[in-house]
Design goal:
The chain is globular and about 35 Å long. By secondary structure, it is mostly beta strands. The strands form 2 sheets. It has a 5-stranded antiparallel beta sheet with strand order 1-4-5-6-7, with no helix packed on it. It has a 3-stranded antiparallel beta sheet with strand order 3-2-8, with no helix packed on it. The termini are far apart. The chain is built from 1 helix and 8 strands. Helix content is 5%, strand content 40%. Bound molecules: zinc ion (ZN). Zinc ion (ZN) binds next to loops. The site of zinc ion has 8 residues, from loops.
């Protein structure tokens, strides 16, 4: 992430639940993710969230790399998952 980009206030992953709920039809905060940078595993609810005007940036709590970007612009969802090694969804 560019150092010049405003990242807002750091929150936890629960703050992105509403945004991600627009993309995923399950409780995304209990889904587990693996960081592509350091392989730390955690629930999405435990990621560090930086809320932006149009979306959010979710960072790894272990190494601070960006794991997920989500935004909605003009009714279109944008999801950048390059920082995640995998997403694990249990149940269903
Ligand atoms: Zn990491």
């Amino acid at each position: 992430m560019a150092a010049t980009m405003s990242q807002g206030e750091q929150l936890d992953g629960n703050a992105a639940a509403g945004l991600l709920g627009g993309v995923f039809a399950f409780d995304v905060t209990v889904a587990r993710v693996e960081c592509a940078g350091c392989h730390h595993e955690d629930a999405i609810a435990c990621l560090h969230v930086y809320a932006l005007e149009m979306g959010a940036i979710l960072r790894c709590p272990a190494c601070n790399d960006v794991m997920l970007r989500v935004s909605n612009a003009g009714g279109t969802w944008w999801l950048d998952t390059r920082g995640m090694e995998r997403l694990q969804i249990s149940g269903g």
